[in-house]
Design a protein that fits this description.
Elements (H helix, E strand, L loop, with lengths): L18 H4 L5 H10 L10
């Protein structure tokens, strides 16, 4: 017998919203994201 994912017929959205549509483009979170993405953690992850 096939297994089906549970669902809610009253759900508001089919897919989750894109965070870029909610947060303004000049928000500080984008700067923090860029800094973290560009960090060199290669020495930290060798252990």
């Amino acid at each position: 017998m096939p297994k089906f994912k549970e669902y809610n017929q009253g759900q508001m959205m089919l897919l989750p919203p894109d965070i870029r549509d909610i947060i303004p483009s000049d928000h500080i979170c984008y700067i923090i994201n860029d800094v973290v993405d560009n960090m060199d953690i290669s020495e930290k992850s060798d252990k």
